[in-house]
Amino acid sequence: MKSFRQAVEANDHAAIEALLAEDVVFTSPVAFKPYPGKAITAAILRGVSRVLTDFRYVREIIGEDGRDHALVFEARVGERAITGCDFLHLNEQGLIDDFMVMVRPLSAAQALSEAMGAQFDRIAAEASGTAPADGA
């Protein structure tokens, strides 16, 4: 979805959040349980932007009905190159209601898990409204 891709590439967290449905479910590549809700999903995406560098989308695949999108990305997490895919589903209003991420290779997924783990307290505080959501 073009508006989401542009928002991510511009690091525009307000625009990203505006594209999320209130009932969005985020499925992490490194956590067992999905995260339901707009606040936590937006906070996770801000955290990801803090730990991934050189992020760029390299391919987009769109389903026949236009409601399913796969955005393939490349980035770095620390010293590791990472390749992944954001799988997005849009609801009837055109908002993202399902957001699943997969990444490879395993060594990069482990580095991502460690980096995001270090962000978790801040992510939780942002999601609960007890920390500023400045994207920095």
TrEMBL record:
InterPro entries tied to this protein: NTF2-like_dom_sf, SnoaL-like
Top-level lineage group: Bacteria
Pfam families: SnoaL_2
Domain SnoaL-like, first and last residues per copy: 4-96
Protein's name in the database: Membrane protein
